[in-house]
Amino acid sequence: MTMLSSCSSMYFFYQAGKGQLRLLNRGRAISEVIADPKVEPDLAKLLSTIPEIKRFGEEAGLKSTSNYREYVDLGGEAVVYVVTVSDALALKPKIFSFPIVGSFNYLGWFSKNDALEFAEQYEREGYDTDVRGASAYSTLGWFPDPLLSSMISRESGKVLAAAYPDLVNVFLHESVHATIYIKNQSYFNESLASFLADVLTERYFKSRGGADAEAYWSYLDQRKRSDAVRSRMARAFADLKALYSSDVSADLKRQKKKDYLDALQGELGFKRKITNATLIQFQTYDPGDHGFGAILQKTNGDVHAFLRLLSNLKEKDFEHPQMEELRGVLGNL
Questions:
Q1: What's residue 308's pLDDT?
Q2: Is the pLDDT at 287 greater than 80, yes or no?
Q3: 243 and 257 in contact (C-beta within 8 Å)?
Q4: Which of 260, 271, 204 has its CA nearest to residue 50?
Q5: Partner of 169 at 20 to 30 A CA spacing, among 106, 138, 150, 190?
Q6: Quick count: other Cβ atoms within 10 Å of Cβ 118?
Q7: 25 SS3 class
């Protein structure tokens, strides 16, 4: 587990505080944005659904918060840039630990340059890194989170048909974080939020009958492609994990790794370079059934009961920080 130097740690919190303050200062009340005649009609229509989505999440059992009352236009930028660092010949993430707030297997930077510089420091030491833009994040109740333009899917500047279901999903994902969050367990927190947001997004659109069916089918088609990529990344994770634990020499492992990832890059047409750290990122956010499905089935699909069961979990129930394998912990419930 890596404790950042005092200077690095201070700078990380400084940039996080500064970035959060900048977001809060740029926020406009959603009601004001909707009423603004200069705002494109598709965006205004989308923003008008926020109270309904929020009400649905709360009725499903998610915590009521003061989030998403304001809107921030980021001008096409990601809100934060997430850096993951891994050993070069092991799927072992660098864990970053801080006093009070705990540890994470990634770090988010408001400045892309800061994120790239941070990653480069580790690359020079021989680590694999991954830097990706994130459309949303949760402050876990420390601040009222605004709705961000990055949470709304666009193409060539226009709001996509699937933007509505996408917004529902990311809204519910971040609301799960505000409801259940276990310190030092990124895999649990992210996979739970991904799993439950997917379940609730489906239920949300089913509850609307045939309304917005076209947008929802567009979303499902998009998700099908995303799921195929995620499944392939999971297979790559397993394949390389087997390679790294084998008895072949380090040099041969490096060559086989390079050949495998180069082929994977071409196969998927992935824009950013695929590394061990990229595979760890996908693994962290994978909503694949780590045992959450069995618990939901046990509660007969009742999300209130599902959340009550999971709320019994405490930090001490996990064998160590940043546990990747969750079935044992969840099975104890």
A1: 95
A2: no
A3: yes
A4: 204
A5: 106
A6: 21
A7: helix
More confident residue, 268 or 66: 268
Edge-to-edge strand list for the sheet holding 107-109: 107-109, 80-86, 128-134
Query: How many H-runs (helices) and E-runs (strands) does the chain carry?
Result: 13, 11
Q: Is 33 helix (H, G, I), strand (E, B) or coil?
A: helix
Domain limits at 285? 2-331
Q: Residue 180 and residue 308: Cα distance in Å, rounded?
A: 10
Give pTM, 2 decimals: 0.84
CA pair distance 222, 226, nearest whole angstrom: 6
Beta bridge partners of 104: 96
The span from the CA of 92 to the CA of 101, in Å, is 22
Q: What share of the chain is helix, strand, coil (3-state, %, to 5)?
A: 55, 10, 35
Q: Do 188 and 318 touch, CB atoms closer than 8 A?
A: yes
Half-sphere exposure of 88 (CA within 13 A, CB side): 14
Write the DSSP assignment of 170-207 as a string of letters: HHHHHHHHHH---TT-HHHHHHHHHHHHHHHHHHHHHH
Question: At residue 5, does pLDDT exceed 90?
Answer: no
Query: Do 285 and 192 form a contact (C-beta atoms < 8 A)?
Result: no
Question: What distance in Å separates the CA atoms of residue 15 and residue 13, rounded to the nearest whole number?
Answer: 6
pLDDT at 4: 55
CB-based contact 306:295 (threshold 8 Å): yes
Number of residues that this document lists for the chain: 333
The tally of domains found in the chain comes to: 1
Average pLDDT over residues 250-262: 98
End-to-end alpha carbon distance in the chain: 28
Tell me if residue 72 falls in helix, strand or coil.
Answer: strand
Q: Could you give the 3-state DSSP secondary structure of residue 2?
A: strand
Tell me whether strands 70-72 and 147-148 are parallel, antiparallel or unpaired.
parallel
pLDDT of 116 over the 70 cut: yes
* Spatial contact of 201 and 168, defined as CB atoms under 8 Å apart: yes
Rounded Cα distance between 289 and 287, Å, is: 6
